[in-house]
Each structure stands twice: as C-alpha cells, then as structure tokens.
Amino acid sequence: AGRALLRRTVQRPSSFPPRITKRTESTRSAPPSSPPSHSAKPSSPSDVTTSIPGPSWLWLEPVFVPFRAYGRAQRKRPYWTQFFSSLTIYFCGDLSAQSIGEEDYDPKRALRAVTIGGIFSIPSYKWFLYLGEHFNYPSKALSLAVKVLVNQAAFTPLFNSYFFGMQSLLSGASLKEAWDRILHTVPVSWYNSCKLWPAVTAFSFTFVQP
C-alpha cells in the first residue's frame, strides 16, 4: 500500500506538464493582434473613380435653355411668337440669299421678304395645326406618309404661288407679269422642294410637339 501510494505521488506531477505545454503552444500559435497602422499609404488617384454626378447628357443643358424658353413663349402667346419667328426666319433667309450673289445688299428686298413672311405666318401656322390634327390612322407610318403627301401636294404649290407672286407685285410688276412668273417658277420650285421638305415635314411631325 505504501509503495503504491508513493508511486501515485511521484507520477501525479508528471501529468501536469503536457497540459501546460499544450496551453502554452496554443497561446503561442495565435499571433498577437497588431494595432491599426496609421502610416498606411492612401490609394493612388488612379484607384479613385471620378465622374460628374447626374446623367451623361447633363452638359448639354445650356443648349436646351433657349429652346425651352421658345416653347414657353409659344404656349403663352402662340400667334405673336409665330409671327416674330417668321419675320426673323425670312430676314435671315433673304440675308443669306443676298450674300451669295455679287450684288450689293438691297434693304428693300429684305423688307419685301419680311413682309411676305409676316403675312403668311399665321395661315401657315394654322395649316400645320390642321395637318397635325387630321390624317391620323392606327399606323404611325401611314399617318406620317399621308401628312407629308398632303402637305407636298396642297400646301407647297399654294405657298410657292403666293411667295413668287407677292415678290413680283411688291417689286412693282403688273398682275400679268406676276402670273407669268408664277407659271415659270412654281413647277421648278415644287420639284426642287421634293428633295428636302418632305424630310423636314416628317421630322417635324415625328419629334416636334404641336
């Protein structure tokens, strides 16, 4: 009994070192957490994406400002806006036409052009409103084609006759001379207008609000 008790006493301490060793090894295996370093280098400029906030077309906003102002004026005072727009367009058109020729600038011709545009401004405006409200079919392509065809067949000959006839009369020509000029110029002008104005009319009825 004494020998067995002595053996137990001697062997018991030997059972502690493995546990201590394991606990020490587990403690050593976990590296100490290092504090956050404040000397980390900031990311390079190439790593940072810079962009303008908002839609990509926002830089075009200044271009739309005068068009929006014109639209507001058109809604508030459609007749006056149309009238003064016609005067401006006819004046610029005559100015560009006179700059092509070699003759000196003729202010009387510019005045005739402005007068012709001002007289026919509201009737032409009414015509295009009428054209936009009629000839509307389930097919948008068919509606657009009919509008272009009716405009080219009815409005263009009438307007060209008015334009060349008034030019002759305001220049001092007689009624017969004005009629002769209409007969000689309207067919040619109508044929040449087919090269451009159907596309302009189609664009207007597709993208421009009434």
Automatic annotation (TrEMBL):
The keyword Mitochondrion does not apply. It is found in: Membrane. It comes from the Eukaryota. It holds the Pfam family Mpv17_PMP22. Residues 1-49 are annotated as: Disordered. It is a multi-pass membrane protein. PANTHER family: MEMBRANE PROTEIN, MPV17_PMP22 FAMILY, PUTATIVE (AFU_ORTHOLOGUE AFUA_1G13840)-RELATED (PTHR11266:SF113), PEROXISOMAL MEMBRANE PROTEIN 2, PXMP2 MPV17 (PTHR11266). Belongs to the peroxisomal membrane protein PXMP2/4 family. This is PXMP2/4 family protein 4. It comes from Cryomyces antarcticus.
